[in-house]
Write a structure and sequence with these properties.
- By secondary structure, the chain is of the alpha+beta class.
- It has 3 domains: 168 residues, Beta-Lactamase (2-Layer Sandwich); 85 residues, Signal transduction histidine kinase, dimerisation/phosphotransfer (DHp) domain (Helix Hairpins, Orthogonal Bundle); 158 residues, Heat Shock Protein 90 (2-Layer Sandwich), CATH 3.30.565.10.
- Helices cover 54% and strands 18% of the residues.
- The chain has 11 helices and 12 strands.
- The strands form 3 sheets. It has a 5-stranded antiparallel β-sheet.
- A hairpin with a 2-residue loop joins strand 4 and strand 5.
- Helix 1 runs antiparallel to helix 4, helix 4 packs parallel to helix 5 and helix 5 runs antiparallel to helix 6.
- It is rod-shaped, with a radius of gyration of 53 Å.
- The model has no long low-confidence stretch (mean pLDDT 85).
- The structure holds adenosine-5'-triphosphate and magnesium ion.
- The site of adenosine-5'-triphosphate has 22 residues, from helix 8 and helix 10.
């Protein structure tokens, strides 16, 4: 029994069943049509000879005719047929008066057959039956022989009885049957062969894919399948490669992130531990103690920031809906940030400008999260712009949106890095960012926050010339009615 767990077996079974059904139906139809056609043709030949004999004898009283005349008539007519035909002339008492067959002539015998009785009633009749004598199928035709008219009717004086062997017809039909059988077998072989071939072509790439997927499941993530076909399987393979690449990339990043987190945590923790030990073991001046405590404070802040960033990320996965409807002024948030960060730009030797309109720039959502976004963007601008560079923050509004741009004259972001920049843990320049405490989380967090707020963040940058991060947020329009009721 075929187990239907492979495409090859299914394909074979499917094509075989179709071929078997079609061939059986077609074979039966062809066979029965041909059989009918041949028998009909045979019958016509016999009826024509019979009618010819009947015409010849019409007007004669066969009872009065001599036996030799009838026999020679029967013989000459049956010889005209291409088929070996036997003709008998029978009178109304069913007695044979003339017989074309010499060998077992039935002259003088009475033939009490159904067809003859029917013909004597005035109806021509036909029968096909197996004859033991002839050892083959035979067709028999009986045709009434009309004598003189009695009143309005012609009386049936006798019967012309013809019989012909169907040996040849059945031999032809047998040949046709064999032909149909063997063509069915050939078609089935062909179907099996074709199914094997096609199933092979279909399943080979699937096997490759399967193997690659299996290896991936076992942990070998670096998989690539090469399938040249451009069909659905080819597209699947392509998609598989993209998926594998992505998974690979994400896993690598996750590992890098875990390493980074450990490293980031270990440095401040080791420092903390050293500071505490020193404080404990050495007697120090008050002044020195304060210095140590300041260091302690700085390191704990760094730790808290890191942990906060990580927390922020996990929190974002469950959007805080409670804060979604809260209205607040983006202008105020931007001004606060400018106040806080301006000194840092100054210290870094970066020229910092801003251009904020006087309107409130009302938006809705979480003020804390929105503040975080612009903090991250300005922080990046600060970190990735060299001394002497320029950073510009400007905001504007139109009917529906508030748009804020953070523009810097830094090193820009190369085209091949742009699609990764917003991914978690992604940092372009690993060694450099780590020194500066960058975790590659800032932009990922920002993008998620902006999307949660129904906005979008767009990067346009030119390598070597700087970058512009444009944030578009839906504006809250306060209706006149609301303004009145509030006042
Ligand atoms: N304004 C910019 N100019 C040039 N490169 C930038 C800029 N902003 C971001 N990048 C690049 O994109 C990377 C990802 O930025 P992101 O803010 O997500 O992480 P980070 O600044 O490295 O770390 P974190 O923000 O978590 O402290 C950065 O490492 C940096 O390489
Ligand atoms: Mg950053």
């Amino acid at each position: 029994m075929l187990k239907l767990t492979s495409i090859r077996h299914k394909l074979i079974l499917f094509s075989l069943s179709i071929i078997i059904i079609v061939m059986i139906v077609v074979s039966f139809a062809v066979y029965y049509w041909l059989k009918h056609y041949y028998l009909h043709q045979q019958e016509e030949i016999l009826v024509r000879s019979g009618n010819f004999a009947a015409d010849f004898l019409s007007g004669h009283d066969i009872g009065e005719m001599r036996e030799v005349q009838l026999v020679s008539l029967a013989r000459s007519i049956s010889q005209q047929n291409q088929l070996p035909t036997r003709m008998m002339i029978i009178d109304s008492d069913k007695q044979v008066l003339g017989d074309s067959s010499r060998i077992d002539s039935k002259i003088g015998e009475t033939l009490n057959r159904e067809e003859i009785r029917t013909a004597l009633r005035g109806e021509a009749s036909r029968a096909v039956q197996y004859s033991e004598e002839a050892e083959s199928w035979v067709m028999q035709v009986a045709i009434p022989l009309y004598g003189g008219a009695t009143g309005d009717f012609f009386s049936v004086d006798g019967v012309i009885f013809l019989s012909a062997s169907l040996h040849e017809v059945y031999a032809i039909l047998g040949d046709i049957r064999m032909l149909l059988f063997w063509s069915t077998v050939a078609a089935m072989m062909l179907a099996i062969g074709a199914s094997f071939f096609w199933a092979g072509r279909l399943t080979e790439p699937l096997k490759t894919l399967n193997l690659a997927a299996q290896k991936m499941a076992e942990g070998e993530l670096e998989q690539k399948v090469e399938i040249p076909e451009k069909d659905e399987i080819g597209r699947l393979a392509n998609q598989f490669n993209i998926m594998a690449d992505r998974l690979n990339y994400m896993t690598r990043n996750l590992k890098a992130f875990a390493a980074n987190v450990s490293h980031e945590l270990r440095t401040p923790l080791t420092t903390l531990s050293l500071l505490i030990k020193s404080l404990k073991e050495h007697d120090m001046e008050r002044e020195q103690q304060k210095e140590f405590l300041d260091d302690l404070d700085q390191q704990t802040d760094r730790l808290i920031n890191l942990v906060n960033d990580l927390l922020e990320l996990t929190k974002l996965e469950h959007i805080n809906i409670k804060e979604k409807g809260k209205h607040f002024s983006l202008r105020n948030i931007l001004l606060e940030l400018i106040e806080q960060m301006s000194p840092w730009f100054e210290r870094g030797g970066i020229n910092f400008h801003y251009d904020i309109p006087l309107s409130v720039l009302m938006i809705s959502g979480s003020p804390g999260q929105i503040r975080q976004v612009f903090y991250n963007l300005l922080d990046n601008a600060l970190k990735y712009t060299p001394e002497g560079g320029e950073v510009k923050l400007n905001a504007r509004e139109d009917e529906n949106n508030v748009t804020v741009e953070v523009k810097d004259s830094g090193k820009g972001i190369p085209a091949n890095e742009r699609k990764f920049i917003f991914e978690r843990f992604y940092r372009m320049d690993h060694s450099r960012s780590r020194d500066e405490g960058g975790m590659g989380l800032g932009l990922a967090i920002s993008k998620e926050i902006i999307e949660v707020h129904g906005g979008e963040i767009i990067l346009s940058t030119e390598e070597g010339k700087g970058s512009v991060f444009k944030v578009i947020l839906p504006k809250v329009t306060i209706s006149k009615y609301q303004l009145k009721s509030e006042s």
